[in-house]
Amino acid sequence: MTATTSGQVISDRQQLAYIASQAADARVNVELETEGMTLNIGPQHPATHGTLRIIARLDGEQVIWAEPSAGYMHRGYEKLTEVRSFPQVTALINRIDWLGSFANEVPFILAAEKLMGIEAPPRAQYIRTILFELSRIANVTLFLGDLGVQLGAITPVFFAFRDREYALNLIEAATGGRFHPNFDRIGGLKDDLPKGWIDEAKATMKKMKQFCDTIEDLLFGNEIFQIRTRGIGVIPKDVAMSYGLSGANARASGIDWDLRRDQTLPMAWDKADWKVITHPAGDSFARCWVRLQETREACSIVEQLVDNIPAGPIMAKVPRIVKVPEGEAWVSTENPLGEMGYYVVSKGDTGPFRVKIRSASFNNISITPWLLKGVFVPDIITILASLYFILGDIDR
Amino acid sequence: MLATLPYWGVSLIRILGGIVAVLLPAGSIVYIFLFKMMSFMQSRLGPMEAGPYGSMQLFAEVGKWLQKEDLAPDGADKRLFKMAPLIVLASTFLLVAVVPFGPDAWFTNFEAGVFYALAVSSVSVLGILMAGWSSANKYSLMGGLRAAGQLIAYELPMVLAVIGVVIQAGTMNLQQIVVKQNNDKIFGLHFLGNPYILTQFVGFIVFMIAVQAELTQTPFDMPIAESELVSGYMTEYSGFRFLIFFIGEFATAGVFALIASALFLGGWGVPFSWFGWHNIGDVANWMNVVGPLIMFVKMMIVVFLIMWVRFSFPRFREDQLQRFAWKVLIPIALANIMLTAILKVAF
Amino acid sequence: MAKPKVPGMFKGLGITFNTLVDTLKNGAATVQYPHEKESPPVRARGVIALREDNCTSCMLCARSCPDWCIYIEGHKELAPPRRAGGKPRGVNKLDRFDIDYALCMYCGICVEVCPFDALFWSPEYEYSEPKIADLLHDKTKLGEWMETVPEAPELESGALKGKK
């Protein structure tokens, strides 16, 4: 760790990369010049979870400059929300982070409820929290499997797809939609849980914990995995903060910050006993490890909450046609990918006047130009995999 | 039986046998291991529709590939591009030529067999490098360069691992190595013969790791690396040229497994003492039929190990892979050679 | 840590091998789709069924659809009076009720918003078509789906009864 003249703290490796890039520039006029190569990783590439494009300038296998180029899947959700009513918006924003879609609805609905000055009944809060954590499990499960694929191990991803199905079945049994539940309503939830769901949830949580063990043994314990991820892509705490990282990426850099705990929302997280996982290392391994442990925590949150769901209604008293009073509200929650928030401006209409969506992945990948400097090509893939973004969440 | 045939007849049988020895293992490896074992390890069933239990799937895939257009990228060096897969496949055929399958069931039987096998196995590097370079694709180029670095680096531990066997057998003729293994004794015990996996266990491990790298199977699949290089040197190939690469990959796996079983597992033979044989002249004629079957079983076991590792492990990074070859495998192999030489002289 | 440490690589090999044995013994986790089928949960949003008699062509569903994939046309008709000697009633007759499943995003807002219980979810999912135009289901086809609509499931304990 050294400080440059501009006061920015960079690691040794990055300084070396900086020197290498300077040297590469200096060689331009020298007779024996080595020509760099610009490599386009994406938009169509098996490792980018969609259509992210990374423009990397290589010297041999080493990256001397890299920049992500997002926007290949921009769908204009912020604009779309302006011409939709509130119930329609929840159906749309399901598709932002498509792997943990229920979690996308919650902050938006909470913002709308905040504007209306109502709060969902406790039963709805509990069920919301359970479904929120289930979507986190479904989301991170796929990450854990996909991680293997990015590193060349093909088996974990099939385990992930197999076991994620159990979580998705739960979500589907409750909401009717496997990926896009559209279950949250202003003032509560669309429907109550079907009979037998709680027992099924408990059984599933056991399976998911088993899955975590399997992945830990199959992938995290593997020495090759460890040498591929430990010490690679290190993000120091202050850099993580200055780039606005959130979620597991921030916690893996030692930032003890979790919106589920640090914020009082009308949700049931404070009713369960769980802990925020942090890791001091800040490397790829830490990011993966934090996510693995968080999945376990999420399982235990669900297990604790399903036993204590209070009886009562699931909808507060709201008119059939919702009109949100004039005002502005900002609500953010700790989504599977990090902090996700909605700034909702309402002019008293059935739909929002303007919505600003703060999605976690967009900020999380903003660090890539800094992070990818000086790494090798194979490490681009592991670092991107460990940052864990979803294209829908970047481009919206 | 072979003695009664004219020379050209024998040659024809041997050529046919060579084709069978390459394609049959390749096909069965793809079906048993790639389709079925991998699927079972991932708790799914694999192809089930084509034929009973999907056993005709391979033919369906071959049919599909043969129908496809023979494409070459615009910027490619067309002649090299089209030649490269053939060179890779040719090295497999050259390699199988020295493998003995029975007392008389061999393709060629010459003194420097091991030396020839190791030399010929590196011909495929040439094909891969040509494929990577001529594709006019950055990913292919990187894949080709990685392959060249890796295959050359792992050639060395492989050679060194085999030297232990050669020292112990005192010959480089694969046929005689097999005979030695079945006719020898360990510590005076005659029952098992002396399969060199017992005495050359370290050599076997080093050899298998090197084979894994030579075959670019998973912990060492940097040149292909689907998630990084989009299949590396094979990126631009389609249709039957890709098919040839594909056959080449698995046929080479089979042939290397054959060589490994000839070198370390006793090859086609059963311990001679079981039937009261004393040297190769005593071996009954039916071994020419049973030998290939024994060989096939042993090959399947070795390939099972290769594939098992392939389906369970993530991959190394290029520099870690090189470091592993030069700093770990080669010293171990050298120490093994020294130890073998000392013991050979001592006993 | 009392237990002996197994190198992670061998643990990984063990896991894949155990799965191999498990699949051979107990069968795979997958379902061989066209031969065997999974039954989706009762609430699964598979296809929308229409009870034509209940529909008054009020257009609420068409208006609340986020991607406007419901097409409704109707006209008023005079029906015979309920009581003898009464005035003929005006009844809304449905001429056309189409849902374009090529556009539908299965959000379920139309089903929820319908005030007369004319739309229902059915968990049926096998209606893919080789031609995209065939995904436009007209009212007879939507009516046929009514047979597959299941009873609403019982609710978990603690839920308020009698509320939709």
Structure description:
The complex is a heterotrimer of chains A (396), B (347) and C (164). With 396 residues, chain A is of the alpha+beta class. Chain A has 16 helices and ten strands. Chain A is globular, with a radius of gyration of 22 Å. By secondary structure, chain B is an all-alpha fold. Chain B is built from 13 helices and no strands. Chain C has 164 residues and is α+β, with helices and mostly antiparallel strands. Chain C has a domain of 102 residues: Alpha-Beta Plaits (2-Layer Sandwich), CATH 3.30.70.3270. In chain C, the strands form two sheets. A three-stranded antiparallel beta sheet of chain C has the order 2-3-5. Chain C has a two-stranded antiparallel sheet with strand order 1-4. The model of chain C has no long low-confidence stretch (mean pLDDT 81). Chains A and C meet through helix 3, helix 6, helix 7 and helix 8 of A and helix 1 and helix 3 of C.
The amount of helix of chain A comes to: 40-55%
Largest interface: A-C, 48 and 36 residues
Strand content of chain C: 15-25%
Range of strand content of chain A:
5-15%
Neighbour order of strands in the largest sheet of chain C: 2-3-5
How many strands appear in the DSSP assignment of chain C? 5
Poorly predicted sequence stretches spanning 5 or more consecutive residues of chain A: 1-5
CATH architecture of the domain at 47-148 in chain C: 2-Layer Sandwich
